[in-house]
Amino acid sequence: MCILFSFLYFMIKQRAINILKKNWKDGFTVPSKNLYPYQWKWDSGFIAIGLAHFDITKAKKEISTLLDAQWENGFIPHIIFHNKSNTYFPGSDFHHSELHPKASKKYKSTGMTQPPVLGFVLKELYRIAKDKQDILEFIKNKINQVFINHEYFYNNRDPHNEGLIYIYHNWESGTDNSPIWDDIFATMDSPIFSFERRDTDLIDPSQRPSKREYDHYLHLIEIAKKYNYNDEKIIEFSPFLVQDPLFNSMLIKSNQSLIDLYTLIGNNQEKINQLKKWQENSIKTFNAKLYNEELKAYVHYDLRNDKQLAYISSSSFSPIFAGIPNQERAQSLVNTMLEKFGGENNYLCASFDPTHKKYNPVKYWRGPVWINLNWMLYNGLLQYGFDELANRIKKDSIDLVEKVGFYEYFDPRKEIYKEDSKGYGGNNFSWTAALIIDLLNEELK
Ligand code: GLC
């Protein structure tokens, strides 16, 4: 590689490391100062991957702190409120996780979760760490907690034993205000809440969810609270019950990582057998139920109203990361991505179908590019041998960061970028920094 590029990449990596150093809070990393001032579950997983490249002790600590907040029933919450902050709403005094009898007694948290990244994150830590014996010791100490978390999902979040887990809140998906949820919100009669939002003091409201959407978000939490976050009651009464392809892909990817790691550790045949059973059922149902032949993409399934939600989003391609489609179907997904998302004038990969009327390239999960999805797609596409597309996604991610900085999300339209352009949402965003470090790793070897 030419010296100029090496130097450029080296500088980008140094900037990313500095962001992660600044966002470290004595035991965990905040996703973004002020905007997200606590520990978030799937953020922590991605962040640990970046930390592992320059400070493995912190990477291990990030995961240990998260797992320390696991509930007695194996559940891991989406936000852990380690500290006080007046820059975020809704905080612990709205969520009241203690309503659930098995909630952590040590930490306040939300009563909802986020995509199950920890299985594959442990495997990534093993890949990245230089001292394999030391990291394997760490994994040995933590892996059963992740297994128990998967057990929680299969025992409590899969009412028909299909191998597909439901989410009961859009925040559980990680893709907060995706247009996918609009149809479900339209079936809900949410009250008008009065509350003081903090996010729109910090970020241009055109880049954030609307007030009405927040009413729905709070209403769903109120329903769950009314039943003390009891899963059986939520299944019965929540208007929002969705089988999400992104969430389930991450579970399946993590199942496979746990199988690989238990095999490496040895003497865990029973757990491996159980994981294989879950895995077989999950992959079979996933392919049968979540694929939409007409759209040539995986879609979400509305379990409450028993129908597919026929929209294409970046989540539609995430099964590639988990090895779910066969080669032929993976090729169809690639065609769909190139046709609808991949025009020459677009950076990949928009979070929502750019050819759809609900697409909004500025607004959060309704169109902008997110680096965590790009990281998954890059790694998944390589596994299927789609190297060219994989490398385009990697290059787009690095270009965006180089152009405007380590933002939370980015406009996919190439033509809007000028000299003084900015990204969207929070700046100095931790998982953008962390995953760019990982993406640059090969470049800097
Ligand atoms: C936003 C994102 C979510 C993320 C959180 C913290 O809510 O939509 O996926 O975990 O911010 O970064």
Tell me briefly what this model is:
The chain has about 450 residues and is mainly alpha-helical.
Question: Can you give a write-up of this model?
Answer:
The protein has 445 residues and is mainly α. It is 50% helix and 5% strand. A four-stranded antiparallel β-sheet has the order 4-5-8-9. A three-stranded antiparallel β-sheet has the order 1-2-3. β8 and β9 form a beta hairpin. α2 packs parallel to α17, α5 runs antiparallel to α6 and α5 packs across α12. The longest helix is centred in the N-terminal third of the chain and has 25 residues. The termini are close together. The site of alpha-D-glucopyranose (GLC) has 7 residues, from α2.
Descriptive key words:
single chain, globular, 50% helix, binds alpha-D-glucopyranose, 4-stranded antiparallel β-sheet, 9 strands, 3-stranded antiparallel β-sheet
Please count the helical segments: 17
C-alpha Rg (nearest Å): 20 Å
Mean pLDDT over the residues: 97
Low-pLDDT runs: none
Give the strand line-up of the largest sheet: 4-5-8-9
Number of strands: 9
Compressed to H and E, one letter per element, the order equals HEHHEHEHHEHHHHHEHHEEEEHHHH
Bound molecules: alpha-D-glucopyranose
* Fraction of residues in β-strands: under 5%
**End-to-end separation:** 10 Å
Q: What can be said about the biggest beta sheet?
A: 4 strands, antiparallel
| Secondary structural class | mainly alpha
Assign an overall shape: globular
Report the helical percentage.
40-55%
